[in-house]
Amino acid sequence: MGRLSVDLCGIELDNPVIPASGTFGYGYEFAELYDINCLGTFSFKGTTLQPRYGNPLPRIAEAKAGMLNAVGLQNPGVEAVIREELPKLAKCFRKPVIANVSGFFAEEYAEVCCLLDAQNQVGWLEVNISCPNVHGGGMSFGTDPETAAEITRAVKAVTTKPVIMKLSPNVTDIVSIARACEDAGADAISLINTLLGMRFDLTTRRPILANDTGGLSGPAVFPIALRMVWQVSHAVRIPVIGLGGVSSADDVIEMMTAGATAVQIGAANLVDPFICRDIISVLPARLDHYGIENISDLTGGSR
Amino acid sequence: MHKTMKQEIFELIENTALTGNVSRLRLRGDVSAITVPGQFVQVQIEGLYLRRPFSVCDRDENSFTVLYENVGAGTDILHTMAFGSKLDVLTGLGNGFDVCRCGDTPLLIGGGTGISPLYWLAKKLLNTGKAPTALLGFNTADDVFYADEFEALGIHTIITTADGSRGLKGFVTEAMKLPHSCFYACGPEEMLRAVCKASPMPGQLSLDRRMGCGFGACMGCTVITRNGPMRICKEGPVLDREEIIWED
Questions:
Q1: Is the CB of B213 less than 8 angstroms away from the CB of A30?
Q2: Complex-level ipTM beyond the 0.90 threshold
Q3: Between the N and C ends of chain A, which has fewer C-beta atoms within 10 Å?
Q4: Rounded to a whole number, what is the distance in angstroms from the first to the last CA of chain A?
């Protein structure tokens, strides 16, 4: 165990830094830039049963200290992921990966999870019940405790791998959703997905995004993510993965202070493709600065 | 084929106005990842979150040139940046033009700042013994830029303006009558569509879509083509005309 290592559902990570789903593809493109084995792990692009093109363009808009996206779960479908993407990943990444899964009904989540459960490369299943950019399914599963529990049970029934439920911040009471997932058997919680937002083009007076609305991410959402991670980690016994606007080693430390066991980095990868590598390399010095011996000591250590 | 992208700090060595609304920017630094005309760079601009994409107009041993139009928040800030400013840039992005498949007499068609990547392309084509013709479209005589630079390359350069105040009156399609071996085009979407409609010759088009990352990670700029989904920033920005599905 190094001083950066953390335990995520019984699997040891060399460090808590995890590129978030949808900002890191299936990994191999970043492997052209640096050795991605330096990462704790990463969560691959949200995968559905059928291939999806996603939403019409424009899908991206600028925001103050952040961005909006309405990609809409573009992915080649689970069979192509298993046939083409995972073998490419195996050539450049030797650690277990987080498989991110999306769907439009419980059986679909279960079917995708069942197929990915059979892949040795997959260490965890991260179940996205929080995508704000698709209609029917997606976020609608993550805004009601009953449905969140139903999806959790459906997935748990088909896998022995740890199941991480990825929650939406677009709710009144995040704790009740997290507790429902825990009670239904979830092994971990990750939060937050993006916050629903929009921008207008003042020349055309139309929304910039073709989908009208999209998900806000980036440093603008970091305080909201911290607050929700803090609330949830104090209300459940399972590990919480914190994400939302994390952009520096100090942000990682702050997120773990709020109660996170590990930390995902999303939008920042899109602006600085080397950021995860760079954060990992400066983390020891930042721990020294704050007088912290092992990073795992931080989790839940807020006073 | 081409080198992997790089993230480098560049120094601003020129930022001059060419017209009322178009400027030339030159940045000095490690340009080794910029290898193919038609590639682009992503520039981090202070005060904005996402990087802004610019196609490369030219490069030499230790600098590259960008021509940009003031169109929004990013270029407004860029416009005020002074000599010696430092900029964080991702270089070597996108596929660029294929200079091999062009025959002997390619036609380079540009509209507005779309002429930018065609300048370095023209130089590359000349180096490989081709005889390119430049066809550059603008709105009015006041909007014309880089006509002299194209002419200085010693290639036939045709200017069109929508109001006829310089060169031929009308759009670039007015000047596409003569036969050429192929075309390369970059400019407004309506121009690209009109060019394809006006001529059946083989062609490559550089497309412009609102991007997030610029290097294939976010899926923000994917378009459906006849060869399936393609990321404009990664599999593009240059597509063959046969690949493009024009929406009505």
A1: no
A2: yes
A3: C
A4: 26
